[in-house]
Amino acid sequence: MDKAKLEHFRGMLLEQLRQRTENVRSSQADALEMFADDGVKDAADMSLQDVNQELGLRLGERESQAVADIDQALLRIEEGSYGTCARCAKPIPERRLEAVPTARYDAECQSLLEAKTGEDEHATL
Ligand SMILES: [Zn+2]
């Protein structure tokens, strides 16, 4: 993938990260309000670490995972492995990356992996 295209996808990823970060910030404000409502501790007395720890619990896996996916995609751009399927090492079609810039796999491997996850879920039932 040429440099201009990498920059294009990097821009998309940074924009997504910015939007996610805004979500996190408003969640952080909510979390601080909850602490204040407890009346047990002043929010101001809490260390940032405590707040972040609590936030991780309250944010939910979905949001944390989305931010982690974007981080990893940005890392792959730095490493030069962006746009290559992590399973079969074939190039991921650009139209797929346009739709899902965090994609690690091409459509074929993605559906194989999802089918596998489905089997695992059945096994635990
Ligand atoms: Zn693949």
Question: What are the SSEs and their pairings?
Answer:
Blueprint: H1 3-38, H2 48-59, H3 61-79, H4 94-99, H5 107-124
Helix pairs in contact: 1-2, 1-3
Q: What best-fitting shape do the alpha-carbon axes yield?
A: elongated
Written as H for each helix and E for each strand, in order along the chain, the element string is: HHHHH
Low-confidence stretches: none
Question: Bound small molecules, which ones?
Answer: zinc ion
Structural class: mainly alpha
The overall pLDDT average reads: 82
Describe the protein.
The protein is an all-alpha fold. The protein has 2 domains: 1-82, no CATH class; 84-125, no CATH class. Helix content is 73%, strand content 0%. The protein is built from 5 helices and no strands. α1 packs across α2 (48-59) and α1 packs antiparallel against α3 (61-79). The longest helix is centred in the first third of the chain and has 36 residues, at 3-38. The chain is elongated. The N and C termini lie far apart (43 Å). The model has no long low-confidence stretch (mean pLDDT 82). Zinc ion binds at residues 85, 87-88, 90, 105-106, 108-109.
